[in-house]
Amino acid sequence: MYTAKDIRNLALLGHGGDGKSALCESMLYVTKAITRLGKRADGTTVSDFDDEEKKRQYSIKTSVIPVEFGGCKLNVLDNPGYFDFAAEIVQSLRVADAGLICLTAKSGIAVGTEKGWKSLADAGLPAMFYVSKLDEEHANFFNTFDSLRDIFGASVIPFTFPILHGEEAVGVVDLVSKKAYDVSGKEIALPAEAEEKIEEYMAELNEQVAETDEALMEKFFMEEPFTEEELLKGIKEGIRQRSVTPVFCGCAMNGLGTAALLDNLVRFAPSPLEGKPAVRVDEEGKESEFPLNPDGPATAFVFNTVADQYGKNSYFKVLSGNIEDTMTVVNARTGDNEKLGNTFFPKGKDNAKTAKVCCGDIGVFTKLASVRTGDTLCQPGKLVTIKPMTYAEPCYRMAIYAKTKGQEDKVAAGLVKLNEEDASFTYGNDPETKEMIIAGVCDIHLSVIIAKLLSKYKVEAELRPAKIAYRETIKKKVEIHGRHKKQSGGHGQFGDVYIRFEPQSESEDMIFADETVGGCVPKNFIPSVEKGLRNCIGKGVLAGYPVVFLKSTLYFGSYHPVDSSDMAFQTAAGIAYKEGLPTAGPTLLEPIGELKVFIPDANMGDIIGDLNKRRGRVMGMNPDPDNRGWQIVEAEVPMGEMSSYAIDLRSMSQGRGSYSLKFVRYEEVPQINQAKIIEDAKKADEE
C-alpha cells in the first residue's frame, strides 16, 4: 500500500493527436504493467476504452492510468485533446498536483499546448512539457525547445534531450543525473557533444533554482556550486513555484526516454502532500484552504463520473484520512448516507478491487446512485463541502428531437443520465418555441451526446437549429370597430367595441386602458374585452409570434340588455384585434444579444469582418487584462445570426477564441430580412 508521499497525481494535457494516450501506453509497457503496446487505430489502448472513443479514434473522457515506478504510484489522468471536452480538464485539474503537456517534435507548439499552459497557470499548478514523436521525419527537439523558451520564458529548461545519430534519435541524456540512456533504457557512455549542452542547461537551471531561496541566490552570486541536496530541493521547489518548467522528450512507440521521464517525475513532481490544497466552502459561501491530512477524518471528493451498462462509476480523490470499503459515508450535498463496498483502483476500463484507498490516492466507487460529480463524501459528523467545479457556459445551442414520435420522454431520460456523466452541457424545454434545447461547447460535443443516447439508451435523436423567439409589434396608431352579433333562436350574442391600438415603450406586456363613459359598455364586460385581447396577443398577424409593446384602449361600444355576454365581448375584441393590427404597421422584432469575444490580436480583422456579416455592431475593443496579446471584442448582434458562431469562431481562431452571449433586448428586424422569417414561420405552421 502506497502512502501520500509515494503518490504523484499528474494531468496529461495537449493538443489532440500529440501523443498523450501513446505515452500512457509506453509508461505501462516500460513498467511491465502491459505486455504489448496498444494502438489507437486498433482500439486497443488502455486509456481509450469507451466504444465511442474507439469509433472516433480520439479521447472523450479523462481516464485514470496508474503507473508504478521507483517505489511510487503515478496516477496519470489522460485528458481529451479536443476543446469540445475541456470540462474533463477542469475536473482532472481539481485532483492533479501537476500537469504534463505533450507536444510533438515535428509540429511543435499547437493551440492545445497554449491552452494546457493557461489551464495549469489558472489552476496554480506546476507545468512540465513532454516533446513526443522524436522518430518522425523532420522531428526537431531543439527547435521545439527554442519555441517553448520563446513563448513561455526562461523557466523552460530541458531535463532530458536527445542523442542524435544524423537525424535519428538513438538515446536521451538526463540533465540532472548527467547520464545517457539508449532506446531500451540501458545506460550508455555520455557523448562528447552532450557535455557542452549539459553545461549550458545546468547554468540556466542553477539560475532558476537560485530564485527559489535567498540563501541559494546568495550562493549563486558568489559563484559557489550548489550541493546535490540543495539542487534537488531547489528543483522541486522551483517546479512547485512554476519558476522551473522541465522539458522531457522521447518516443512512445519504441520507449525512448520513457524510463528517464518516469524517473524525473518520481524525483521532482510534487506529491499530494506538497500539492495545492483543496478549497472548502462553508454554509455562508466563504472559501478556505483544506490541506491534505492523512490523519484526519475520511473525506473524498468526486471529480468525474462515467456511466456504463453496469451502472455508474464515481472517480474520487481522498483528501483526508483513508477510505475503506466497509465505511458508511455522508454526501455533504444531499445529507444522504452512502454505504460503500464496491471500491476499486481504476486502470482505464479495468478496475482492481481494493479494501482501502489512502489519503492523496485516486479510486473509483461503483453503484452509488445519488452521488454525482462535484460531491464531497465525508465521515458522519465531520461534514465539509469541497468547492465543486465550475464550467464555461455552453454557448452552442441546438434543438433536440426524437427521431421516432412518442420517444420524447426517452430522450429526456437519457439526457438526465448523460448529464450526470457530463455536467458541462445543459438541456431544457424552451416554453416559447416549445422545443427541447441542448447547449454544449461545440458541434463535436453535441454529436457525441447524440451517439451516446443511441449506444447506451437505445434512443435515436437528431439535432436541428433552435427556433428563434421573435416578437411582433406595431408602429402606427389605429382605431377599429369590432362587432359580434349572432341570432340563432332564443338568446343571441351581441358585443360591440371600439378599440384604439397604438405602440408604447413602457412595458413589453400589453397595456389595457378603459376610456368609456356613460356606461356604453357595462363595467362587468370591460374585463371580458381585456381578456379577449390577451387571448389574441400570443399570436401576431405577420408570422404568429407574440405581440409586445402594445397599448389597447377601449373608448366606445354598445351592448344588448339580453344578448350581451362575457363571451360575446371577448369575441368582439378578437375581431377588432384581427382587423386592426394588419393596418397598424405591424413589424417583426428580433432578440439582440450582448456578445463578448476573447481572441488573440492576430484574429481581430477576421472577427470584426465576420460580425459585420452577422449584422453585429461592435461596441468596443479592449486588451484582455489577463492575457497579454489578446483582445476582448464587445458587440451587439442579432441572436438569429449566431447559431453557427461556435463553429465559425473555432475555425477563424484555430480553436483559441471563446465567447459569451446573453440576451439584452428586442429590436426591429430590417425589412429586407423580414420576408424570409415570415415565410419560414408559415412553412413551419403548415408542417
From TrEMBL:
Q: Name one Pfam family in it.
A: EFG_III
> Could you name the domain of life of the organism this protein comes from?
Bacteria
Keywords attached to this Swiss-Prot or TrEMBL record, sorted alphabetically, are: Elongation factor, GTP-binding, Nucleotide-binding, Protein biosynthesis
Coiled-coil features, chain-numbered ranges: none
Annotated GO molecular function terms are:
translation elongation factor activity
Q: Residues in domain Tr-type G? A: 5-273
InterPro entries, per database record: EF-G-like_DII (IPR053905), EFG_II (IPR041095), EFG_III/V (IPR035647), EFG_IV (IPR047872), EFG_V (IPR035649), EFG_V-like (IPR000640), P-loop_NTPase (IPR027417), Ribosomal_Su5_D2-typ_SF (IPR020568)
Claim: Lyase is one of the keywords in the record: no
Stated name of the protein = Elongation factor G
- The scientific name of the source species is Faecousia intestinalis
